[in-house]
Design a protein that fits this description.
Number of domains: 1
Number of strands: 2
InterPro entries: CR_Ser/Thr_kinase
Radius of gyration: 15 Å
Strand content: 5-15%
GO molecular function, one term: ATP binding
Distance between the termini: 10 Å
Structural class: mainly alpha
Shape: globular
Keywords: ATP-binding, Kinase, Nucleotide-binding, Transferase
Number of helices: 4
Helix content: 40-55%
Length: about 100
């Protein structure tokens, strides 16, 4: 599954669509969310923005992941705004446009 699709599913909170169906829902959803967040941070297009392995280990130990994740989401929204990936909905409100893959 490509990162664009994972980002979309994560934003929609459809994490079950990302998890291996062979796990038969035998997993903790908070742990899945944490793993997806770490994976997305590690697969950023710019190598300079990817966390060091020591940060990944700390994140997996739940130290600092929330702060790093919030910062990444802000950067992602800013990048999308700069690229013009926002469209207006029927009420005129700007919404993030994500192309389907």
């Amino acid at each position: 599954m490509n990162t664009g699709k994972v980002k979309k599913l994560e934003r929609e909170k459809r994490l079950d669509a990302i998890v291996d169906p062979n796990l038969s829902k035998n997993y903790g959803i908070q742990e899945v969310e944490m793993m997806i967040q770490v994976a997305m941070l590690c697969t950023q297009s710019s190598p300079e923005e990817r966390p060091a392995m020591s940060e990944v280990v700390r994140s997996l130990e739940i130290e600092g992941l929330a702060e790093r994740w919030e910062k990444w989401q802000h950067i992602e929204v800013t990048r999308r705004q700069e690229l013009g990936d926002y469209k207006e909905d029927s009420t005129g409100e700007k919404i993030l446009f994500m192309p389907r893959f």
